[in-house]
């Protein structure tokens, strides 16, 4: 099952999320991979993992946590190297997304004692062009804390950014890389995702099921045929991959009845991302972060390997 801490992200999600978890459980839940043997002392002081992203060029990982952004080398290498904090930033990185050009966008709260001049302890949108080593403020500083962020390139080559304002549960939309914003719909979402194949389509995971927007987040409607996903990412060609409250991995196309269930994620999933790797000798894979480590799967959750923890290798 997913980590109960996920429910703290959005006001009102905690109570509704509990209903979702109970409704999703069955008397004989599917088996889950055993993550209990991972040594917690091998994990840095993440506090909590809010997001994970994979740098497509070298498959290194960016891990957004309570204590800044951390990195780990390609988890499929024999020796990916140590997990290290990127730069000196210790901000509580609540939302993070990686644009196709390698720019990292994030949000959250300053580290304790930093930026006391802010009216609210919210970072707004910040941006990094050096792999999260340094950050520049972009907009909404001291105003907004985005708990979910997603980017996609529009037809004219600009970067669209959508973010969930945690204070109001409002979707904000920018068509100029986060410089200016327009107000979208209010939706009690846990996760937001812009489709790469159609940047006008936004998917939101909510306590009552998947919600779908075809107008870049300005309005949403229930996607009643879809499973009740909690975490979601692009698969390819307009399809989605996601994990439901029981940890079951699903693939399908939003707005259709074409959905398939697959394997089951490790216990306590906090974040996930999908890498559609078609390079020679490789295949697509899922990365999940749990309260005990990082895990990868190349068979849609049928089996998992530890990427960070004592059982790696």
Automatic annotation (TrEMBL):
Cross-referenced SUPFAM superfamilies: Oligoxyloglucan reducing end-specific cellobiohydrolase
Family annotation (InterPro entries): Glycosyl_F510_1955-like, WD40/YVTN_repeat-like_dom_sf
NCBIfam families hit by this protein: glycosyl_F510_1955
Protein name: BNR/Asp-box repeat-containing protein
Organism: Cellulosimicrobium aquatile
Source taxonomy: Bacteria, Bacillati, Actinomycetota, Actinomycetes, Micrococcales
């Amino acid at each position: 099952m997913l980590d109960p801490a996920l429910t703290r992200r959005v006001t009102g999600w905690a109570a509704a999320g509990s209903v979702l978890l109970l409704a999703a459980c069955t008397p004989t839940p599917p088996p889950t991979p055993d993550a209990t043997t991972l040594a917690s002392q091998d994990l840095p002081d993440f506090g909590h993992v809010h997001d994970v992203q994979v740098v497509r060029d070298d498959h290194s990982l960016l891990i957004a946590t309570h204590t800044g952004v951390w990195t780990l080398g390609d988890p499929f290498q024999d020796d990916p190297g140590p997990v290290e904090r990127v730069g000196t930033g210790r901000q509580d990185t609540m939302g993070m997304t990686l644009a196709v050009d390698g720019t990292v966008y994030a949000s959250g709260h300053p580290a304790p004692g930093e930026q006391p001049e802010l009216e609210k302890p919210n970072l707004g949108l910040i941006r990094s062009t050096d792999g999260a080593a340094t950050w520049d403020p972009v907009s909404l500083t001291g105003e907004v804390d985005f708990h979910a962020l997603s980017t996609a390139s529009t037809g004219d080559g600009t970067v669209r950014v959508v973010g969930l304002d945690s204070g109001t549960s409002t979707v904000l939309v920018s068509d100029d890389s986060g410089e200016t914003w327009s107000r979208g719909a209010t939706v009690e979402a846990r996760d937001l995702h812009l489709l790469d194949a159609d940047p006008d389509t936004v998917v939101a995971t909510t306590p009552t099921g998947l919600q779908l927007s075809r107008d870049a987040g300005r309005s949403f409607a229930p996607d009643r045929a879809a499973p009740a996903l909690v975490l979601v990412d692009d698969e390819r060609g307009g399809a989605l991959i996601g994990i439901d409250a029981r940890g079951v991995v699903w693939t399908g196309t939003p707005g259709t009845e074409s959905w398939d269930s697959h394997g089951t994620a490790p216990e306590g999933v906090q974040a996930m991302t999908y890498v559609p790797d078609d390079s020679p000798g490789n295949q697509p894979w899922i990365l999940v972060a749990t309260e005990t480590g990082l895990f990868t799967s190349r068979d849609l959750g049928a089996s998992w390997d530890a990427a960070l923890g004592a059982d790696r290798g």
